[in-house]
Here is the input.
Amino acid sequence: MKGPGAAGNGSAVARIGATLILHPTLKHRGLNGRSAEQKLEEAIGLAGAIDLDVAHAEITPLQRFRPATLLGEGAVQRYAELIKAEEIGLAIIDHPLTPVQQRNLEKEWDCKVIDRTGLILEIFGARARTAEGQLQVELAALSYQRSRLVRSWTHLERQRGGFGFLGGPGESQLEIDRRLIDNRLLKIKRDLEDVKRTRGLHRTARRRSGRPAVALVGYTNAGKSTLFNRLARSDVFAADQLFATLDPTMRTVALPSGREVVLSDTVGFISDLPTHLIAAFRATLEEVEEADLILHVRDISHPETEAQKEDVERVLRELGLEERLAEVVEVWNKLDLVEPGRRALLLGQARGSERQVAISAKSGEGCERLLAIIEARLFSDSELRRLRLRHGEGAAIAWLYANGDVLERRDDDEFAHITVRLEPEQSARFDRMQRRQGN
Here is the structure.
């Protein structure tokens, strides 16, 4: 396997050979309300996303986490024997590892060891296709690598002299590595700022076209890309695997009335996703922040769908979107996989609601109702007005830009012809202002 963030490929995976997955859990405490069995299954799914050959996977109950190796001495020895017998080349610990723990386990087991974050970064590296996606993956990977530069790694303790421009005399390899990573991080952040500006220009252009933005969010493998393809009549890659989609995708979607919205598909969320990984994808997730409507796609057939919902909402809060949670429309997907009794209950619960809709993106069931809900939420109260204002009415024109959604403007010698969408109270307020001005 390549270093974290490097694009994976079949030959790299083949060289790894067999893989061991361990999910450590404390005997006296659960984890995020999830069962250890489901957490282990998810880790196996993550490994499968990059075609790793999982030879053995198990839950490892612990009394406490050990500073040196995370696992107890007996467990370390037992797994060392298993790794040797099974010729395992990679051990995945489904838990954060400190650099010291990672190094010590690699020494004891004589194989490559990565933690949950390292595995997710491997998947991101294999999935990223666009230049923006690759930049975001590299940012996350370098941030992760920098945190793992520690003095206990003796191969970084070499001393290197210099002429001043490469580093002062006696500068350690550790300091040089950290400085090189910092320089690269700065460049990536600058490049992502350019991406951010370009996205901003595209959003402005979309708003001028009168097309509201709708963003899909959800736990990884909830079916966002399948729903995206269904609504947009598109062919974005969608598979029954974790993180099948990484790069953001946008398409125009027609609503029942013929109005159009811009739909965006985003990277899936997952439990225990480190903050710096979320931060790395902030440029992409701005599409969520700027969206007029957020659809939370849930795998309603999953046994831990409520815990997954909590994980997604936690990430949205970390993005500063807590106030938007009350407006989110929950899309209960994979209805085709739900047993009949619960299916009837879900359909009854969602009936008549504009906050919840039960669907199957695979079969199309419920998707027409979802489109109707999108239209009702975005357009039912707004009023489209076509106004003709004299160029001297600058204050009124500025007010429309500040308080409405200006879709089109055409100027002639005397007038500004403006098409604007206004909420009813704003429309009435504008009329009162114009009457006071005698217009």
The chain has a mean pLDDT of 82. The chain has four domains: 10-126, 129-194, 211-379, 383-436. DSSP finds 15 helices and 15 strands in the chain. Residues 298 and 332 are 5 Å apart (CA to CA).
